[in-house]
Amino acid sequence: xxxxxxxxxxxxDLGRLFPLYLAQALATGxxxxxxxxxxxxxxxxxxxxxxxxxxxxxQASAALSAGAFGALMLRSGxxxxxxxxxxxxxxxxxxxxxxxxAGLMGLFLLGAAMMGGAQGGYQQARYAAAExxxxxxxxxxxxxxxxxxxxxxxxxxxxxxxxxxxxxxxGTTAEVAGWLVGGSLLGVAxxxxxxxxxxxxxxxxxxxxxxxxxxxxxxxxxxxxxxxxATAQGVMVTLMSLTPLRAHHMGVEHAGVAALxxxxxxxxxxxxWLTGPLIDRFGLRLxxxxxxxxxxxAALTAALPGTVWLGVSMFLLGLGWNLAFVAxxxxxxxxxxxxxxxxxxxxxxxxxxxxxxxxxIARAGFTTLAALCALWALLPLFSAWRVRxxxxxxxxxx
Length: 398
Hints:
This protein is mostly helical. 77% of the residues lie in helices and 2% in strands.
């Protein structure tokens, strides 16, 4: 896949994009609650050996729904598809809350599966943002979306004490109450879709935008881009989901786990103002190589003793994911037919990682899991090798 560069384009129309950005920020907060704290809920339900199962169900459901939501959005528009996804997520969070509070594992896992199905749709909001701007500014648009996502994430992790208080009022734990909070955030996000008016996509008339999925995947570099996205998603979700369990074993309380997740969220989204423009300026290779290096560092530091290293690991994990994810998402904006399927591959990787990760921790320890994630993190280097030299936007071909 070739890299395209050009002179800086007009400023982003953030005013018209704001409802979309805010909805995605709230959804990110809800995702943080459902995915990250689900392992602790399973442990509380008496199934620590299956701590990774809820996250696996989330990822599996997202993998199954991503392609369907992608097809729906191509046919009926981003607004309808995203609105339905946010609504499904709100219902799933409510079901998961009721199941966890009542101690009904099956109902809790059903809620997790519904949340995953929703994620397969609303995570594609990034393509809606990127499609609204010229190609030379798409990294910047994606970075701005990630920066806005910090708001929703910190709304959850930064208010751990009030969530603990809510859990006390409801007669349950903070982790379970967090699912109710997540459902509320997704409900608001669904309402925001009524206020969002999608912008006209300035570059989607290109031939690559009309390619079928099979034809798009046949273009050199598209499959390696999918590899980078799936790897970044898989490594990030695996370590993000299971590091809180390691911290819990080290005696870290809920507020400490929330602090670890806050650092991770900061790495994932807080530097979008920088990483997006850098990828616009220097190209996709920066995202793939930098992402691989940081994901590798995150896996290695996660295995070191002490909670300080856990904090370092979680931050590096988020920032490495950011670089690879922004680069890969920008590259695939020109190929709508493969976006949902590629997201599905990422969810498959995440689901397998969390499911096997829980088993690996139970049988061989967290250090073994971290070592395997370190090897996994090297795959985006192949994606960087497959990127072709930059060409002007007007003549670049995928």
